[in-house]
Every structure is written in C-alpha cells, then in structure tokens.
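Researcher: Let's do a round of design. I'm pasting the structure tokens now; please hold your answer until I've finished.
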C-alpha cells in the first residue's frame, strides 16, 4: 500500500481535479495529503464541499506534504493537452530528492524529461507514466464474448460526466451481491486505482478497438459482469474518436449513460450545445448497430452528477430525466447504484 501525496495545485475541484478525487475515493492506497496552495489549511472534504476525503489535509507545497510521510507523489490533474505546468517542476524535483515514487497520468511522459529522469536516476526513484501505451499493435477481429457474460460500457454527454465513477460503483455493488464482476480501466485515473488497464487516448487510433477488444475478451472469459470505463463522448468535438474506438472494441451488451445535471454545452466549448438526452442516447445505440445490426445494444439506465445541487434539486433533476427518457435514473454517489444494477438484471433476464 502506498502513502500518496497528490499534487493538484490550483485544481482541487471536480472537473480538472478529477484524477485527485478519483484516487482519494477509490484507490486502495492511503492519501496522506493534497497539495493545493489556494485551499491550504482545509481538508479535502471542505475544499470540495462534499463528503470525500474527510480528514485529509490540503497543504501549501511538497515541503508541507513531507510532514505526513508520503512515499509517492501523484499528479492529480487531468489538464487539457496533458502537459506538466512549469510551475510544478520544482515540487517534483523536491519529491524525487526525498526518494518519492512519481506517478503521472499526463500525456507528457515525465520519465522522458531530461531533468526529471536524470534526478530520478541519481536518487533511485521510479517514475510511472500511467499513460504510456503498450507496444503491441492489434486490429479488431470482431470476436464474440463468452456466452453468459455481460459487457456494460459507460457512455455520456461529455468528458467528466461520471463514467469511471459509475463503472466503479456498479462493480462494487455487483460484487457485494455475490456476482462475478470486474472493472475495466481505460484511462489514467482508472489505471491508477485498479493497477491495470489501457490508456486508450494514447493508443494509435487504428489499434484502439483491437486492444480494447482483446482486453474485454480476456476479462469476459473470467467474469460474468464486465464494467468498461468510458472515455470522452461521441458528441465531443475534441475527443469523439476515442469514444467510438471504445464502443466498437468493447462491443457492449448494454450501456449506462452518464450526464451532469443541468449541463447545456460541452465543458470548455461554450458554442457547442448538447443535444437532447434522447438524441444523445440514440447516437450511442446507433454506433453499435453500425457493426452489429442483428443485435441491438440499449442504454438501460442513467446516472446524473448532482453534487452541485441541493438534495431537493437533485431529486427533481432525476425525476425530470426519468420523465424525459423513460429510463431508471440515479446519482450513484448520492443515492446509490441499485436502480442501475436492477435495470441491468431485468434487461438480461
């Protein structure tokens, strides 16, 4: 078990700090401190305004974090473009001097940075670039999954819509019900949590579907329920290719749709409005039918992110979405994943 300090300077919030939040909430490792000088002196729960990371201190810099005896420094942001902020470099060098392992999910590989790699070599430090893709190249073969297994893909209206969270919560619930299930990580945070998976947004596009297919075939041979973490969104102007590769590679038997309550545009694209939910659901279902017209794949439930709403507002948002789509809807964090697991069981019965 690692003792992790998370570097999330200026970004300890729900969207750009989603890596930090995900690791705190789900990783088996212990988070001992979060570095964010703009929120120093609080604990994580107070900084987020939610019951996540109670008692974990938010500190000013790596020197303060070292008082809590971490053995690992983890980069806790998911910035657009995946670069390391220049102002963070000194903190990584200080961590390396103290022999902390470095874990990074950035697109920039820290192990290839001359200054950081030289420091790591000098101090005997390991740098784990989580987004480093496998060397293997594989084109999808369109092979069927094991009969009796159920592959569930989590799709959504945008990045940061709760796809990983929903997949992890359903996997937890399935296992608590005695079912044979597994979470399949496809992004940096999921890999940090589970210790395995594919960084699909770093794989050459020709091989995304093939490598995802291979991974899902392997997991579905060993488990009855396979919960595949989604990435991006088909309607996203920047990240739709990875979503399509995941859909065709995982060839799901059903999908769960993820959405932030009240969202009207793509995050960071104010001139890119979101279609109606039923249209968004339809395009994901249609994308499966392009390669498998003889067997449809349906969205069987919806999870909403409602952390920005009061409980009364959250219930109302869920009611509105259920009325609009006719599908079981919940916030898996606030109200639990049972409605979605029940819907999946009914769908396959």
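Researcher: That's everything. Go ahead.
Model: Designed sequence:
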């Amino acid at each position: 078990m690692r003792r992790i300090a998370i570097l999330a300077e200026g970004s300890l919030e729900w969207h750009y700090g989603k890596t930090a939040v995900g690791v705190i909430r789900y990783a088996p490792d212990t988070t001992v401190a979060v570095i964010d000088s703009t929120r120093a002196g609080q604990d994580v729960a107070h900084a987020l305004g939610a019951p996540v990371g109670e008692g974990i201190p938010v500190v000013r810099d790596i020197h303060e974090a070292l008082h809590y005896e971490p053995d690992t420094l983890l980069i806790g942001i998911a910035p657009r473009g995946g670069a390391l902020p220049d102002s963070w470099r000194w903190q990584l060098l200080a961590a390396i001097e103290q022999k902390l392992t470095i874990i990074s999910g950035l697109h920039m590989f820290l192990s290839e940075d001359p200054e950081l790699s030289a420091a790591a070599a000098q101090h005997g430090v390991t740098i784990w670039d989580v987004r480093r893709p496998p060397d293997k190249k594989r084109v999808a073969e369109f092979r069927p999954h094991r009969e009796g297994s159920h592959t569930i893909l989590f799709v959504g209206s945008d990045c940061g819509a709760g796809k990983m969270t929903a997949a992890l919560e359903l996997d937890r619930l399935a296992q608590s019900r005695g079912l044979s299930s597994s979470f399949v990580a496809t992004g940096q945070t999921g890999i940090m949590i589970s210790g395995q998976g594919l960084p699909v947004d770093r794989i050459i596009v020709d091989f995304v579907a093939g490598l995802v297919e291979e991974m899902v075939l392997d997991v579905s041979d060993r488990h009855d329920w396979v919960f595949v973490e989604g990435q991006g969104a088909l309607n996203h102007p920047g990240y739709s290719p990875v979503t399509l590769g995941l859909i065709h590679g995982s060839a799901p038997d059903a999908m769960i749709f993820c959405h932030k309550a009240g969202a009207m545009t793509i995050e960071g694209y104010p001139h890119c409005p979101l279609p109606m939910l039923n249209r968004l659901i339809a395009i994901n279902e249609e994308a499966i039918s392009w390669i498998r017209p003889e067997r449809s794949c349906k969205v069987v439930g919806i999870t909403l992110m409602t952390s920005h709403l009061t409980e009364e507002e959250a219930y109302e948002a869920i009611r509105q979405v259920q009325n609009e789509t006719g599908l079981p809807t919940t916030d898996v964090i606030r109200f639990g994943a049972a409605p979605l697991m029940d819907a999946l069981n009914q769908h396959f019965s």
